[in-house]
Design goal:
Udp-n-acetylmuramoylalanyl-d-glutamate--2,6- Diaminopimelate Ligase, Chain: A, domain 1, UDP-N-acetylmuramoyl-L-alanine:D-glutamate ligase, Protein-Tyrosine Phosphatase, Chain A, 3 domains, nine-stranded mixed beta sheet, seven-stranded mixed beta sheet, 15 helices, 22 strands
Length: 435
Amino acid sequence: MIEALYEVYLKHPRIQTDTRKLTSGEIFFALKGPNFNGNSFAQQALKTGAAAVVVDEDPGFTDEKIFLVPDALTTLQDLALHHRKKLSIPFIAITGSNGKTTTKELIHAVLSEKYRTTTTIGNLNNHIGVPLTILSVSHEDEMAVIEMGANHQKEIESYCRFTLPTHGVITNCGKAHLEGFGGIEGVRKGKGELYDFLRANNGVAFVMWDYDYFRDMSKGISQIHTYGTKDAELTGEAENSQSFLEVKMTKGTEINKISTHLVGDYNLPNVLVAVAIGEYFKVAHRKIKKAIEGYIPANSRSQLLIKGTNSFILDAYNANPTSMKAAIENFARQPGLNKYVCIGGMMELGVDSVEEHQNIVDLLEKYTWKEVILTGGDFSQVQHHYRYFDNALQTKEWLQKQAPQNAFLLIKGSRSMKMEILLEAFDQSTPAGIS
């Protein structure tokens, strides 16, 4: 079945899982979820011009383009594995609690300066997105950079089975998805499944040497390349934490300084590993520098925005205790007195949720702010003297009434909190430094 489907794929190498986006000549996989069943749209997919339709329920009619399989998702992953085995290029897998997407984008930018490189689009880093990314890699590509997200143990292990990474990066192991992983040790075990695969398959790991736990987790991997602020093969330091991050390289490269469009020195490891991988794959120094300096963050990830007299750090794509702490500490270091902290609840923290939200409030109390506005989640369950609203819409309405001027605002929260709508309290924002 996979061989026959792969023959179709070679002629029509585009996969779609949503008939609303399906175009003629694509292969449609009828996936199922809690609120949808792609099998119901098999006939519609054929009418749209699908090159093949993969279903796991009898559609009630026959057509030579129909592939009836035991499980459509498993078949998608099996097809990805079959395709992966036909490719002999480096596959670089990236996982971690924080910074995965930014790191992936930086590495992709650097490698693209020399190689034809395909990477994960956006954050399609789950059990559906990973195989779709693999199937988007063509035989003309020279590099693949695959982002892997996970919220429970054995998930990264499962992705490695059909990604077969040759190189890997774990950005960090922080307090994210504690409910699914079962605590911080569970996070390290789950993320460490990438190291396990590299260890067993003579892979190459790029390891942030500042983090002691990585020194233990990476033991036994035959090829390790280290980066960090000290005691590593490649080192650098944050030279300027105000406005955009500037990185002074101190060892392992001929690059002296990199001026980024990233906010916060918590992005330093992301820059360093991009340089380390560029060096490893022999990308010219000037091109490494050009790629990183040219990268503009988007999609609510550490964006610096300006509107009128107000400035914003928009980091509302996701939040967990580790990334929240880093964002607040970075914001506290920024100059100015008219600073507003607008933070939303953090999700998937399980029994630790209230305690972790209290820890964030305790951290906020160490600094002086113009205003702190807490929104939703378990911020409703903790002791604090700050302003609180149940949802982002209420927070937005309050900001509209206040109409801050000459203010600097941090906007951060878990994706479900939709904290980005706070920008609607102001006129259309534009990325700083972009005309």
